[in-house]
Structure formats: C-alpha cells, structure tokens
DNA sequence: CGTTCGATGCACT
DNA sequence: GTGCATCGAACGT
C-alpha cells in the first residue's frame, strides 16, 4: 500500500510518471487529508538549471542529495511551502515536485485551511477541484510545512500510497513557473483533469497566420 | 479573454 | 541586495 523507498530509487522521470494516480496522505493532529496526485514535475541533477542543486550543495538543498523516498519541503516567495519527493540515489540530487491533487479525504479540513489564508478572508469557499490545485495550494490544504522537510514518505506522517486508482492518460509538457530549463518536457499530468494547475503552454511556433 | 503586479521570507551572492 | 519551482486580484483589450 505505502510505497517503499525502492519506488523512489529509480530514474526520476519514471518515478514522476508512476506518481500520477498515487495518493498523498497527511495525518495531522487536526485529522487526515489526502488526494490523488494528478500533476508533477521532475528536477534532475546539477545540470538541470531549474533544479535547486544547479549551483551545487547548499544548506537548503541537502535533502536532494540524501536518500530517496524522503520529502524535500521549502518555502518559496516567502509564503508558499512546496513539497517534493526525493528520487535517484544518494549523491545524485533529484526530486519530483507535487503540483496538484484530486482531493479525497478531509475536504472540509482542507477548505478550512485554505480559507484561513489572509488573502482569502471574506471570500467564498474554495471549490472541491480547486482545493489542491497548484503546489502552494496543496501544501496549505494538507497542512504541510517546513517541519515535514526530510520526512520519510514510507513512514509518515506524510506518506504516498497505491490505493488502486487509475493513472489516467499521461501528458508530458514543459515545466511551468520557472525561467530556465523550460525546454525540458519534465511536467507530467493527467490529461484533461480539472485539478491540473495550468494548461500546457502552446509550443511557440512561428507560423504565418492562416 | 490577456498581462501585470504586490505580498512576503529567506537562501544565496 | 537580488531573485525566486506562487497566488490571486487588478487592470487592459
């Protein structure tokens, strides 16, 4: 049920593809919350300019160099926690960023946490398919914080499981939200799923108008 | 529809 | 001091 560390100790693009359809589960004091993974991105090695390891080992990115099957959580833009699953093997920095979930368990709890964000004060409740749409939104919905950095994804409290959900049709596209390394088609998503954070960018073809 | 921009904290140079 | 693996509101067309 719970994916073993060996699942993550493989080529990162294979792990990324195979994470689609798996279930991210977080058991917190406030209750359990979970969702089916529908969108991920791979960040692979010091040669990948968008990978946090691009400039070598630093205080922040040590989890990327550690054992596969652990969480790498960091704060970005000062307000959003982003969660990765570390892959490959020790000394080979790589990870899969979890970008979107289809909510399963604990939707009321997720909605409470989402609406607690300062910028959502007085707004209508978040629709189900938007609860975990986007990497910052899903960590807020599940309550994932820096305390979960380096957590073993096989031992919890943050785990990833195979609960027999279908994977759907996998669509590969360019990674989003980055300014370098956009040529690599390292984003995998479930085609047409309403919780996918953004559509695939149109290929910038320079064709004359019809 | 589209693009721009502020909020916000911290790692890194 | 600079620049983010974001979000969502505020604009312009």
What does this structure look like?
With 210 residues, the protein is of the alpha+beta class. The chain has a single domain (5-190), classed as 3-methyladenine DNA Glycosylase, Chain A. It is 16% helix and 26% strand. Helix 4 packs across helix 5. It is globular, with a radius of gyration of 17 Å. It starts with a helix and ends in a 20-residue tail after the last strand. The model is unreliable at 204-210 (pLDDT under 50).
Features of this protein?
210 residues, DNA-binding, 5 helices, disordered C terminus, alpha+beta, globular
Care to give the gist of this entry?
The chain is of the alpha+beta class and 210 residues long. The chain is 16% helix and 26% strand. The chain has helices at residues 5-8, 12-19, 62-65, 107-115, 135-142, and strands at residues 23-28, 31-44, 71-76, 80-86, 94-103, 158-161, 170-173, 187-190.
């Amino acid at each position: 049920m719970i994916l073993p560390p060996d699942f993550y100790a493989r080529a990162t693009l294979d792990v990324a593809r195979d994470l689609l359809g798996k279930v991210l589960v977080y058991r917190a004091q406030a209750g359990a919350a979970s969702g089916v993974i529908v969108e991920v991105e791979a960040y692979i090695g010091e040669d990948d300019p968008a990978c946090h390891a691009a400039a070598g080992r630093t205080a922040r990115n040590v989890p990327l160099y550690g054992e596969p099957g652990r969480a790498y959580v960091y704060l970005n833009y000062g307000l959003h926690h982003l969660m990765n699953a570390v892959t490959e093997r020790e000394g080979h920095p790589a990870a899969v960023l979890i970008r979107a979930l289809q909510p399963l368990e604990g939707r009321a709890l997720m909605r409470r946490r989402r609406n607690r964000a300062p910028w959502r004060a007085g707004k209508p409740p978040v629709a189900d398919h938007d609860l975990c749409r986007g990497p910052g939104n899903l960590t807020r919905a599940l309550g994932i914080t820096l305390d979960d950095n380096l957590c073993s994804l096989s031992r919890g409290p943050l785990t990833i499981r195979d609960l027999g959900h279908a994977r759907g049709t996998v669509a590969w596209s360019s990674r989003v939200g980055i300014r370098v390394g956009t040529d690599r088609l390292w984003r995998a998503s479930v085609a047409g799923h309403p919780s996918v954070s953004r559509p695939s960018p149109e290929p910038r073809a320079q064709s004359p108008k019809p």
